[in-house]
Amino acid sequence: MRPFCLRKTHAWTDERIDLLRRLWEKGLSASQIAGEIGDGVTRNAVIGKAHRLGLKSRPSPVKTDSKNKKASGKAAKKDKNAKVTLLDLTERMCKWPIGHPGDDDFHFCGKNSVAGMPYCEAHCREAYQAQQPRKDRRPPRVRP
């Protein structure tokens, strides 16, 4: 019994390293390579060894292509007649409701919002009005 070691250790032999290199060049995922090597080799062990060996990195399948994101955002902005629905709203869009929520043509403003505010500049002026000084708000006190 090994009291302090919870996982099985393995040595990276020359044969395993050659197999890792071949499978990496073929484009197999780290999980697939770990399965091929077997004997307790994990996905993370494969990634770590590939990094230490200086193997060419590959694009992550999880990350999205930022160019496609930007292009789709520009395409959405070009269509000015499209109505912004609740599902279209982002944190940087004006959330001023236009119309009645029960109507078919109900939508939101959708213009760029002022930083830290939920509305665009025009709707901020309408929603937030400056308070008058205190002395101007109350009627004067009448003393008996």
What helical percentage do the residues reach? 25-40%
Strand order of the largest sheet: 1-2
Distance between the termini: 94 Å
Mean pLDDT: 80
* Quaternary structure state of the chains depicted: single chain
Commentary on this structure:
39% of the residues lie in helices and 3% in strands. A hairpin with an 8-residue loop joins strand 1 and strand 2. The relative contact order is 0.07. The chain has helices at residues 14-26, 30-37, 43-53, 66-78, 121-127, 134-137, and strands spanning 97-98, 107-108. It is elongated, with a radius of gyration of 30 Å. With 144 residues, it is mainly alpha-helical. The mean pLDDT is 80.
Which key phrases capture this entry?
144 residues, mainly alpha, two-stranded antiparallel sheet, 6 helices, 3% strand
Note the topology.
Elements: H1 14-26, H2 30-37, H3 43-53, H4 66-78, E1 97-98, E2 107-108, H5 121-127, H6 134-137
Helix pairs in contact: 2-3
